[in-house]
Amino acid sequence: MPRLSFRLKLLVAMMLVVGGVSGVTLFLTQKRVQAAYEKLFRDKLEALVTYVPKEQEMRIGQIKEECARLAKLPRIRAAMEAGEVERLYLIGRDELKIIVGDPVESGTDTPPAPPPAPGFIAEPLKQKLSSTNAPLPRPLAKEVGKKFGAKPAPGQRAPRIPFLGFLDAEGKVMEAPELEKVLTPERRNFLKQIARFGPVVRLLHEQEVGYLELGNGRVTEIIVTPVFNDGHLIGAVVYGIKFFDVVADAAERVIAEVSDIESGTWIEGKLYTRTIPDAVRDTLAGQLAAEIRANPEPRENFMVAIHGVPHRVFYTPLNEGSPLPVAYKIGLYSSAGALQAQASLRSDFLRFTGVATLGALALSLLLSHGLSVPIRELVGATERISAGDFAIQLPERGKDDLGRLAKSFNEMAAELALKEKYHSILHTIADKDVAQQLLEGKIALGGELREATVMFCDIRGFTALTQNMSPAEVIALLNEHMTVLTKVVTEHHGVVDKFIGDSIMALFGAPKSYGDDALNAVRCAQRMMSERAKLNLTSRYQLQMGIGLATGQVLAGNMGSANRSNYTVLGERVNLAARLCSVAGRGEIVIGPTTREQLGDRIMVEQMDPMQLKGFSDSVVAYKLIEVRTEPR
Question: Does this model's pTM top 0.70?
Answer without folding.
Answer: no
